[in-house]
Structure formats: structure tokens, C-alpha cells
Amino acid sequence: MKTKYLKNVVTLQLQEEKCTGCGICIEVCPHNVLALTGNKVRIIDKDSCMECGACAKNCAFGAIGVRSGVGCAAAIIIGKMLGTEPSCGCSDGGSSGCC
Amino acid sequence: MVDLEKNRKYWIAGEIETPVGKVAQVSTRLVSGDLLGSWKARWGINRMNYTVSPGLYAVGTPDQNSPVLVTANYKLTFDALRKELSDLAAWILVLDTKGINVWCAAGKGTFGTEELLVRLGKEKLAQVVSHRTLILPQLGAPGVSAHMVMQYSGFRVVYGPVRAGDIKEYIQAGLQKTPKMRAVIFNTYDRLVLTPIELVAAVRPSLMIFGLLFILNSVGIGPFGIVDLYAYIGAVLVGCFLTPLLLPWIPGRAFAWKGYLLGFIWAVLVNTLNGWPGELTYSWLRSIGYLLVLPPTAAFLAMNFTGASTYTSLSGVLKEMRIAVPAIVVSIVSGVVLILVNNLIGS
After folding, report:
1. How many C-beta atoms lie closer than 10 Å to residue A84's C-beta?
2. What DSSP string describes B81-116?
3. Which of A2, A52, A96 is best to mutate for the B interface (most B CBs within 10 A)?
4. What is the C-alpha separation between A97 and B265, in angstroms, rounded?
5. Contact between chains at B313 and A49 (C-beta distance less than 8 A)
6. What angle, 0 to 180 degrees and rounded to 10, lies between the N-to-C axes of helices B195-218 and B226-237?
7. What is the residue extent of each domain of chain A?
8. Are A58 and B101 inside 8 Å of each other by CB?
9. Residue A71, exposed/middle/buried by CB under 10 A (0-12, 13-18, 19+)?
10. Which residue of B has its CA nearest to A35?
11. DSSP secondary structure string, A7-66?
């Protein structure tokens, strides 16, 4: 059963002209957001993207852009309070439920 | 290199000789100590300190052609990996992720390109194996640039399956991944094991609330009693346990909404247990107070489960919070005011 999150919020973007169709982005995507059509990658299920950034990080051609970060409310609250980027408090000994 | 003398652990079965010195050989069987440790980590006991020393380990009797598996130094992660490697000869390269699992560490960048390059150098892996392939867990990909690792070390990074349980099949198939190995699932059991830490996280604020109610009782703005106690505890259980467990079946998409919905049902149930639709054992003001306080309490706790889930995006959570957080605050504050007013006019 595939549970979906909010619609039309994801920041994932693909610059087709830079794509060489190597497919590493498809390889690393945990939610089957991307697929190869011909020799180019396409975004086929944008709403399933969790903005982890794996595709962008592994694209050697800079064809993918996404504002990546943790989809974690507790991390965002802590980030707001400390004035930092949302980051899991887990490693800092915080007991927030994230990860 | 893992210092064998200093790090003699029960899960180390032996040691093997390599061109760069002795390497610890790990057992692929989990024993009671591992299971107890996992259980404790799930409940937040010693969770931030549940680590293995970063470095190179051996499984079975690997040689220069054996595959290299890269992982994090959270012991829960390390155990999940090694228990799947029975009858296999492989190297395990443990990165220093500060005791955080692969996915979260990749998000932070500690399971990342730089740490991988440093660790490769420190362990002199290029002298231990003759091939140049590293198998990384797919969920490490947000932290690692495969092409950068290649550029700086000559090692080719391949992303293996998401779950350690598929590794044997993946290796036997010649590093071929099926679509199933690539997909992240989040089934009922996956969610269930993540609920204890949510409950533990709720304990401290809850104790503060109990303390506050006790003070209010003693200065005469009470009485807060047994109904308040179970109503509140119920809302916490709804937010931290029931909502995560029933997640896919609760209508709606936003976590806070899902928590609110179940919290609302709980609030109605509390009032029903106390007389609804007939005469209530407390005032109607208090019953409305419960309807205003309990659902958003559950909603807030459920919203925090976004971090534990495997499918929420930062953009989505930000959008959810923009609506949910003000609504939660307004609802709880007005409910608390109602209950306090009720207590004041009632006493």
C-alpha cells in the first residue's frame, strides 16, 4: 500500500537538456519518482518525492535540482527555535522522535 | 584500523590477516545482548551512544576479490546488516556517522562523500581489495556523490538494495537490483517499532503538564482529577501510537489532520464515558474544553511522526505546519481557558 503525502508541494526540477540518460537518479530514488523515456529521464510521480536529494547529489551533470531537507516537523521546530536549518536533533542527544 | 585489543566485543568472532594488518571478523548471528540493545535503543535508552567503532571489518573469510559493503556506525544498523550476511565472505566498511543510521546520517552529510573518502584512505582499502567497487546502501545516496568518490578515489560506488535482507540476493545476482529492492516500504511493523521513541519523547513535556496541574490544584484552580488524567494520556497515546499505527487507513494526507481526527474521536469518547448524550458528570464548558484540547494535542504529536515516516518531504511538512501549528495553538489555548474558567466559576 503506497501512502501519499501532500499534493503539489515538491520542489523537484529536471533540466532535460542536461540529462544524459545515465539513470543513476532512477537508481537512487526510493519512491520511483523518475523514469527513463528514450534516452532522457522524466519525472513521472512528483507527489511521491520526499526531497531527499539523492538524485541531485548523484547527478554528475547537474540536471536535477531540489530543495532537499528533512521532512520532520520536530526538526523544523527545533530549527526555528535555534535559528538554524531544519536538522534532526537526534545526534545532539535530543529526544525528538525523528529518525 | 579497528584496535582489536581495545575493542574486544562479544560480536567479534575472530580476526584475519590482511596486507594492512589484522581485521576483526564479525559474527553474523545476533545474540541476546544485541536484541536487548536494540530494544533499549527503540525505547531511547542509551540510543545516542549505541555505536560500533568505525573501520574495516570482515565477514567470513574475505579475500581481495570479496565485495565491500559500506554502512553506518549505529549498532542497530550494523546488526541489521551483519545478520543478513551468513555464509558470505565480505568486507564491511563502517563510516563514522556519530551513531546515526544510514538514511538520517546521509541527510546530515555524515554518511557522505567526505567521510567515505577519508575512511577509504585510513583503512587503506585499496591495498586490501584488488577490485574498485563499493556497495553502498541505496538510502545513503542523499549524502554521497558517486561521481565525486570515483573522481577522488578511483572507487566506483554502486547503490545496493534499501534493505539489508536483500543483499545476499543482490550480490548473488551480480549486483543486480530488482525494483522491489529499490522501493522504500513503510509497513505496520515498521511503524510499530518507531512508536516507543515517540512515547518516550512525550513523557518529559507530559510530566511538566502534570506538575502544572498539580500546582493549579494546590492554589485552588482545580480540581484536576482522574478524568483529566486519562483524557490527556489517551490523547498522547492517540498521537504517538495509534495514529502512526493506523496511518495509511486514516483519511486525509496531513499527519496533523490524521492525529486530529482520531483525537476528536477520543475526545467524544471521553465525554461519552462521562454521560453524553445524557447528563454529564462535569459541566458542558468542560466537555467543550476537552473537544478543544485533546484533538490538537494528538494532532501535534502525530505531526512529529512525519520525521519517522519514509515519505514526507520538507516542503510538504512546512506547508502542513503553516496551517496546523497556529490552529493547534489557538485550539489548545481556548480549550485551556474554557476549562480554567469553568474551574473558577465552579469553585
Report:
1. 10
2. HHTT-TT--EEEEE---TT--HHHHHHHTSSSHHHH
3. A52
4. 24
5. yes
6. 160
7. 10-68, 69-99
8. no
9. buried
10. B179
11. SS----EE-GGG-----HHHHH-TT--EEEETTEEEES-GGG-----HHHHH-TT--EE-
State percent of chain B over pLDDT 70: 97
CA distance B142 to B119: 18
Parallel/antiparallel/unpaired status of strands B55-59 and B21-26: parallel
Query: Residue A29: its chain B contacts at CB < 8 A?
Result: 182
- CATH classification of B12-184, choosing from 3.30.200.20, 2.40.100.10, 3.40.50.11600, 2.40.37.10? 3.40.50.11600
CB B186 within 8 A of CB B310: yes
Q: How far apart are CA B140 and CA A92, in angstroms?
A: 20
Count residue pairs from A and B with Cβ separation < 8 A: 166
Cell of B24: 576483526
Cell 562523500, residue located: B113
For B198-257, what is each residue's pLDDT tens digit?
888 888 888 888 888 888 878 877 678 888 889 999 999 999 999 999 999 999 999 999
Tell me how far apart the alpha carbons of residues B10 and B27 are, in angstroms, rounded to a whole number. 9
For chain B positions 230-289, those within 8 Å of chain A (CB to CB) are 240, 247-248, 253-255
B149 contacts chain A (CB < 8 A): no
The grid coordinates of residue B259 equal 492525529
Q: Using alpha carbons, select from B87, B92, B47, B88 the residue that is nearest to residue B72.
A: B92
For A32, name the nearest residue in chain B, comparing CA atoms only: B183
Domain A10-68: which topology? Alpha-Beta Plaits (3.30.70)
Mutate to test the interface with A, among B147, B313, B319, B328 (most CBs of A within 10 A): B313
Does the interface ipTM go beyond 0.85?
Answer: no
Contact B307 A69 (CB under 8 A): no
pLDDT digits 0-9 by tens, B93-116 = 999 999 999 998 998 889 999 999
